[in-house]
Amino acid sequence: MDINPFKLCTGLRYLGYLMILMVVGIIVISYWAVVVLSWGPKLIHGGGDRVPAAFIIVVFHILLIMLTWSYFMTVFQDPGSVPQNWRPVSEVNLEEGTSSTQPDNIPLESLASPWPSSGGIEGRSAATYCNGCRNFKPPRCHHCSVCQRCVLKMDHHCVWVVNCVGARNYKFFLLFLIPNQTINEYLAPLKMKVILKFTTKLTVIYTFLETTMDTLVLLPNILTLLKEAKKHSGSPGNLAVMALAFVLNLAFALSLLCFVVMHAILLWSNTTSVEHYVKRKEKKETSARWKYDVGFKRNFEQVFGTSKALWFLPVLSKDDLANSSSLQGTYFPMRDDVES
Q1: Per the residue annotation, which of 141, 150, 158, 164 is the catalytic one?
Q2: Known catalytic residue at 164
Q3: What Rg value do the Cα atoms of the chain yield, rounded?
């Protein structure tokens, strides 16, 4: 009896539903700690803290809206599936004479190895056959053992969103990362301004900004409550909620910092997490420029679209969805200097 261990990966889908509840719980705790317990009372009671309190609450809500919007777009947006009966251009041309499923201007090199040739020897074909789905799959497409399907330009399966991150929701995933970190930065005392300036320069997106802001703005309030607790004049419940929110946001901020930097580098070179792993595993040349790296501007537009007004909103324009081959996920432009 053959046992397929990868079928056990489908259990991660059920774990993901718990992760969604955890995300909602962290948002609720952070909101209660930052708005209800910390800065809301300062805004209501007035005094010298009214202006900074109003600023923090406004920024907090903006980032919270963007974070939640981006998160649920990542959860519910299909990352992209292989069109039914999709065939590589060469296969269609051989059997039918023309290709009715692909653009006419696709170069033959799109079916070649995704790595530049070395010594006249080509690597594996970019368009391959998936035994699990029993169908051909386009370049940069991979089979997900959790979703049990092939995903266009698959980056990774994320248990936090119970979904794969691929061609059509990678932008939403990146935007989800940034807001959390910013909010946490605002929670810090004035002596942490250097960290705030450093973090905001990373504009990679909303979760990172939110968690960072929460961490920084909660810190002075926790210190105050600790002093009151020594005098038995503070509320143990309020201290517990703020301490929990502070620890959770700090942990997420630190972990997301590395994640944000990693994805910023991948975005810069137009590389997915899967491709980065495969290149390291197969020990491909690290000095050679990636075949799909067509310059940062075009790399960025392949993910965020060409409409500048929508770059930092978790939506894609109809024109980009209709005209961008990269968002459609079956064909990806390559550099002109790549040898096929």
Answers
A1: 158
A2: no
A3: 24
